[in-house]
Amino acid sequence: MKRCVGILAVALFLGLSALAQAPQGSGWISLFNGKDLTGWKKNGDEKWVVEQGTILCESTANKYGYLTTEKTYKDFTLRLKFKGEAAGNSGVFLRSKILGIDPQHGPDIEGMQVEVDPSVGKHTGGLYESGGRGWVAQPTAEGEQALKPGEWNELEVSVHGAHIVTQLNGTKIVDFTDPAPKFTDGVIGLQIHTGGGVKMRWKDIYLKPE
Q1: Cα–Cα distance between 54 and 176 in angstroms, integer?
Q2: Which of 57, 76, 88, 199 has a CA that sits 20 to 30 A from residue 48's CA?
């Protein structure tokens, strides 16, 4: 009986811990259940697996790869955590669309990307428009120092109309109002950049539609 009570207590503690990770307030939905990739779609030949309650992405084919939501979103606040375990570049895509597959480079995508890099000074939290203008907003000098290499980092992205704000570990990185917005809705995507070497973990992915 004592053993059963102990197991129940551990299970209850883990359950409460999981609930405690959710953002405060109502309206938040979890995009990742911690067990499998339900609600997500793999695009390309790169590795996307669930391991120890996290999404692990890793270069295998040396091409672009994307894990995208099955649903599309317009205006929202997104919160997630990431940890780089290798030098390769990654990103979070907003209001995006997979256009097709290039045999040499992998999937083609268009949309606004929030840069995610495992190294300080590589513009993590900046905004890059894929299939369009390229960089539209880069971090402030303070923002460039907000990354915690090799640790879990908290990223928040607020998307309302033409206004996009990103925060990394509580530091505002960019506050950008798009003078010529091209993308109004689409999927949310996690990226493996071509070039090889990417190994990134993701967890605690929550979204609040507006």
Answers
A1: 30
A2: 76
Residue 192's nearest CA partner among 78, 73, 71, 68 is 68
Q: Give the chain as a DSSP string.
A: -HHHHHHHHHHHHHHHHHHHTSPSSSS-EES--SSS-TTEEEESSSEEEEETTEEEEE-SSSS-EEEEESS-BSSEEEEEEEEE-SS--EEEEEEEEEEEEETTTEEEEEEEEEEE-SSTTS-TT-EEEETTTEEEE---TTGGG---TTS-EEEEEEEETTEEEEEETTEEEEEEE-SS----SBEEEEEE-TTS--EEEEEEEEEEE-
Of the chain, the percentage scoring pLDDT greater than 90 comes to 84
Cβ neighbours of 12 (radius 10 Å) = 10
Q: C-alpha 30: how far from its chain's center?
A: 13
Condensed to tens digits (0 to 9), the pLDDT of residues 146-196 reads 999 999 999 999 999 999 999 999 999 999 999 999 999 999 999 999 998
Which tokens is 187 given? 């999927």
Which two structure tokens, joined as six digits, stand for 66? 């994307």
Mind listing the pLDDT tens digit for each residue in 3-62? 443 443 434 344 434 444 678 778 999 999 999 999 999 999 999 999 999 999 999 999
